Amino acid sequence: MKTVKDIMSTDCITATTKDNIYELAVLMKQHDIGFIPIVEGKKLIGVVTDRDLVTRGYAEKHSGSTAVSEVLTNDIKTIASTTSVDEAARLMASNQIRRLPVVDNGTLIGVVAIGDLAVREIFVNEAGDALSGISEQEHREQASIH
């Protein structure tokens, strides 16, 4: 049985609460990513997504020097590296999330993304179901805005 450790990315770009939202935006652009774990040492304390930067940062008229803590999401789901890929796919689908920090003993050791499930052809149906569920939720959110 494959575990999250077998498919996760371990070369995570991270930031700290001492960074500002402009610095996170630059990191996202440089590395072509939309998700940055926020750590204290190696302990995960939250995440910031490109959407967080827009909706809680710039759209709220915060300047680039605004502290990361202003846009940080700290109520996040995490998963242990020993968790099965199947369980990770179920967790991602049921919570409609695309990226899941992998944490062992409070330490961030990687990130598993929905693409990791599909690209590696592991539990393709679960990855498809998870992506479908996330896309349906986003479509409902957009429909309610218009």
From TrEMBL:
Keywords: CBS domain. InterPro entries: CBS_dom (IPR000644), CBS_dom_sf (IPR046342), Diverse_CBS-Domain (IPR051257). Residues 8-64, 72-131 form the CBS domain. It comes from the Bacteria. CDD domains: CBS_pair_HRP1_like. Gene3D superfamilies: CBS-domain. The keyword Hydrolase does not apply. Pfam families: CBS. The keyword RNA-binding does not apply. PANTHER family: CBS DOMAIN-CONTAINING PROTEIN (PTHR43080:SF2), CBS DOMAIN-CONTAINING PROTEIN CBSX3, MITOCHONDRIAL (PTHR43080). This is Hypoxic response protein 1. It comes from Paenibacillus plantiphilus.
